[in-house]
Amino acid sequence: MKRKAKPAPAIPGPGEGKRGAEGHLGYLMRQAHAAVRGAMERALADLDVTPPQFAVLTMVVNYPGISGAELARLTFLTPQTINVIVNNLVRAELVAKSAHAEHGRILRLHATGQGAALLKRCRAQVMEVERRLRELLDRDEEQVIRRWLVAVGNKLSGEG
Q1: What is the CATH number of the domain that holds 131?
Q2: Domain for residue 85, yes or no?
């Protein structure tokens, strides 16, 4: 005798059930991260830049001479992924490599003028996503959230 299969439970939308305020913090952070990344992908699409490329360009512009290993740590990307992104940015003449003065095997990365200009255009697009995030909070709430996110990063990263 065959048993009737139970219908699958309805999967809640974002903000509902366990995907809402009663959900696990880690899951809710991942859900928020996915939403922010998707918004950034859409914001950067017309510039043909991905969020990881944007992160790499941001760090190279802000920390001239950064190494690939440092870049991997700051962008939360693997060294292999950084290698691919950096090589593509070098090929597109957005980033240049130079040898470290004392350690010739270490390559230092610098943004080209074209790379810095592209980052400026990217930032304008991403600032719209940031604006939409800030709309959800008043100034005091934003400061609490910022401090909490930094504390989470410090406490769980093993660095703090």
Answers
A1: 1.10.10.10
A2: yes
Distance in angstroms (rounded) separating the CA atoms of residues 63 and 45: 25
Tokens 């995907």 found at = 19
> What average pLDDT score do residues 92-117 get?
88
Residue 159, token pair as written in the block: 């660095």
CB-side neighbour CA atoms (13 Å) of 68: 20
pLDDT tens column, 31-45: 999 999 999 999 999
Q: Strand order in 107-111's β-sheet? A: 66-67, 107-111, 95-99
Under 8 Å between Cβ of 56 and 86: yes
Give the side-chain half-sphere CA count within 13 A for 36. 14
- Give the tens place of pLDDT for each residue, 67-91: 999 999 999 999 999 999 999 999 9
Total of domains in the chain: 1
pTM: 0.85
Domain that holds residue 54: 25-153
